[in-house]
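[Automated response] Your request has been received and processed.

Submitted sequence:
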Amino acid sequence: MRKLEEAYEDCHRIISRNSKTFAKAFSLLPASKRKAVWAIYAYCRSVDDIVDEGASPHMELAQFEEQFRLFLRKELPLEDSMWLALDDVFKRFEINQQAFEEMIKGQKMDLFKNRYQTMNEVEEYSYYVAGTVGLMLLPVLAPDNHKHLIDGGKALGTAMQITNILRDIGEDIERDRIYLPQDLMNYFGVTEGQIKSGEVTEGFIQLWEHMATRAEELYSIALESIEHYPLDARLPVKGAAFMYRAILNSVRRNHYQVFTTRSFITQEEKKEILAQL
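Generated structure:
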């Protein structure tokens, strides 16, 4: 039991270090659900780090995928904290296995695709890397009726990923990735050269706002089903949605400077958001 608790604490450190917004929102959950969120986040972070920071990401991701297959067959030694904690989560909750597999599929996209032609393509990518996370979390957040919340869970994860895209344009171009759809770039007169040189033009602002409007629509769709979550999960889910949506306003306050400034929500702002829920 002590080893399992230590495994969960290792997962907690991962979420606290890498996503303070996520950690803050879900800190309101009861302990069993909160710890499950930590473990699921650690899984997602492991895959993300392989793609973004791995020395041989193709090989490392293939190895991780094989580990997950062994884990599902109960053939993987549970030596790593993340797998040990995740094993406990799979025992406690009716976990959506397909969502875990599709999340890996989404991360694989970053290994061979770094430009997108349409907003539909961007949303498909956003579903695979983040909408799937919503589906991973639903059985934990709403154990009795998670299958009725699928559309909202997908919408929330996808909205969060579009928010990440709009916040991280400068970081992504350093990795030679542009998630702004080419057809919208053409429509608003934004060139790849302007992105690479970090120019915040009027056209760029219009393009950014066009995508932000879609993200805000998806947040609204996600919140339509909030009353169907159990009471102990409603505030955390609303908190996560409101905090992440607030990142968009943070970018606006920074005059859309996403190339040299990373927009974030302060601890004080997070407290104010939670107090208003």
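Summary generated for your ticket: The first helix runs from residue 2 to 18. The CA atoms of residues 116 and 179 lie 6 Å apart.
If you did not submit this request, please reply to this message.
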